[in-house]
């Protein structure tokens, strides 16, 4: 697979002086092809701008590649050995390809492999009404994809080690001489990893990853409701392409309360009054998040009237956790179906008084 490096040089600023290519690569003129190649790879690894951050690394790397472009090609090497850089008409054909070139910036900027995030893990849990309202902590035990415990991610069988790829000498790429300049390609021997595994790890089958058991404590904030998702970043499956791990997503389901009904951050409840309480008023006991309290009923309250208890609702979620909802109490006046004789006489007398006053 050839990467998108196009030309290694373009005509521009740096003028290549007449130099000894053998001296640049540190080999003798009688050096064999394999010796030249090894010397080039050693120097390329040392001065590659992605590895060597010194100011002159690009120029040095350019110089090394220029030398290898000639000495790594049998025909160009013959011409160079015969004519050198300041050659006559035959030598100038090679010279035009080797001088007055500057390394393109893009040559040093290899497109990094796509780093995909690991897969998320979704776990559903059930909370009691008060666990959801007040917040809580839950310890969850689950399985996820992680680093293989046997090979520690090396992919090699326990007791063995990956060896440096002899083709790319551990770089993960090779430089291929071309007429228009060298191009960089992923090493086909090691698939760009820079190393070779002779015995793969049996438990993970050479993937470096395996299913592991994991325990995670998740903090549930006050105010969550059913279908709310609490995320713990990077606590999901590990990425198989050097990206971030996935998230642990905890989906909430909240049990109902027998008396208090939730609507967002507000609560609703009912209070039943008999006719005397509705007419005369008084005090009644109701349930709240904080236990039972007494509230005052004003005389003459009517059926279905709503009483609001300010800030007796549920705490809002961040960033509004300083706010609370309200509790609304729905008044239900009970009309008796069966009256005692005394009750009937009292109501009849009340009716006569009302008629006389009207």
Automatic annotation (TrEMBL):
Transmembrane segments: none annotated. InterPro entries: DnaJ (IPR012724), DnaJ_C (IPR002939), DnaJ_domain (IPR001623), DnaJ_domain_CS (IPR018253), HSP40/DnaJ_pept-bd (IPR008971), HSP_DnaJ_Cys-rich_dom (IPR001305), HSP_DnaJ_Cys-rich_dom_sf (IPR036410), J_dom_sf (IPR036869). One of its GO terms (biological process) is response to heat. Keywords: Chaperone, Metal-binding, Repeat, Zinc, Zinc-finger. GO terms for cellular component: cytoplasm. GO terms for molecular function: ATP binding; heat shock protein binding; unfolded protein binding; zinc ion binding. A zinc finger (CR-type) spans 135-213. SMART domains: DnaJ. Residues 20-84 form the J domain. Pfam families: DnaJ, DnaJ_C, DnaJ_CXXCXGXG. Residues 135-213 form the CR-type domain. PANTHER family: DNAJ HOMOLOG 1, MITOCHONDRIAL-RELATED. HAMAP family: DnaJ. This is J domain-containing protein.
């Amino acid at each position: 697979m050839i990467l998108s490096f196009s030309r290694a040089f373009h005509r521009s600023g740096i003028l290549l002086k007449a130099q000894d290519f053998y001296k640049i690569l540190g080999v003798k003129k009688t050096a064999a092809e394999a010796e030249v190649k090894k010397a080039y790879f050693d120097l390329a690894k040392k001065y590659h701008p992605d590895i060597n951050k010194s100011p002159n690394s690009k120029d040095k790397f350019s110089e090394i590649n220029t030398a290898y472009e000639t000495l790594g090609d049998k025909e160009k090497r013959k011409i160079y050995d015969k004519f050198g850089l300041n050659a006559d008409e035959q030598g100038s054909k090679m010279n035009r390809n080797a001088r007055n070139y500057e390394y393109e910036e893009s040559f040093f900027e290899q497109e990094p492999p796509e780093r995909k995030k690991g897969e998320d893990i979704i776990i559903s849990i059930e909370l009691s009404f008060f666990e959801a309202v007040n917040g809580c902590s839950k310890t969850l035990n689950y399985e996820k994809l992680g680093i293989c415990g046997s090979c520690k991610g090396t992919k090699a069988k326990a007791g063995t080690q990956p060896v440096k790829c002899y083709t790319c000498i551990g770089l993960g790429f090779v430089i291929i001489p071309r007429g228009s300049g060298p191009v960089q390609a992923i090493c086909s021997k090691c698939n760009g990893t820079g190393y070779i595994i002779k015995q793969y790890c049996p438990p993970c089958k050479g993937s470096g990853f395996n299913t592991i058991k994991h325990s995670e404590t998740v903090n549930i904030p006050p105010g969550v409701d059913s279908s709310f998702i609490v995320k713990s970043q990077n606590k999901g499956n590990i990425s198989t392409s050097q990206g971030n791990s996935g998230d642990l997503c905890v989906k909430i389901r909240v049990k109902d309360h027998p008396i208090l009904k939730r609507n967002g951050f507000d609560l609703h409840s009912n209070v039943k009054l008999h006719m005397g309480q509705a007419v005369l008023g008084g005090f009644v006991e109701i349930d709240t998040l904080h236990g039972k309290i007494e509230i005052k009923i004003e005389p003459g309250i009517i059926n279905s009237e709503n009483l609001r208890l300010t800030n007796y609702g549920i705490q809002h979620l961040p960033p509004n956790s300083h706010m609370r909802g309200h509790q609304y109490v729905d008044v239900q006046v009970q009309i008796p179906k069966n009256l005692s004789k005394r009750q009937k006489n009292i109501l009849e007398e009340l009716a006569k008084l009302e008629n006389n006053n009207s």
